[in-house]
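can u do me a favor
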């Protein structure tokens, strides 16, 4: 079954993208999800690449264009605050 169908059926609107090959898989997943109308975030310390330079450049591009990079600690705090506020 298509992932988008599953997400929409469950009413999921917020997607956290983690993974490897930041400059390919992660980048394209972030962009694709955002284009499809999802709120997205990519914790910068939860992605990896074989090429550190490409990873850092990709994270800068993602942050400039999509404004969606945070650290895992920042994301955890945001989620905790939302959960605590009800």
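np, heres the sequence
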């Amino acid at each position: 079954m298509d992932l988008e169908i599953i997400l929409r059926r469950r009413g999921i609107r917020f997607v956290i993208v983690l993974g490897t090959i930041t400059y390919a898989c992660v980048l394209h997943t972030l962009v694709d999800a955002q284009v499809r109308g999802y709120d997205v975030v990519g914790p910068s310390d939860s992605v990896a690449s074989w090429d550190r330079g490409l990873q850092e450049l990709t994270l800068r591009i993602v942050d400039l264009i999509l404004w969606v990079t945070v650290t895992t600690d920042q994301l955890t705090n945001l989620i905790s605050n939302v959960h605590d506020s009800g």
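Strands lie at 14-16, 19-20, 39-43, 47-48, 69-70. hope that helps!!
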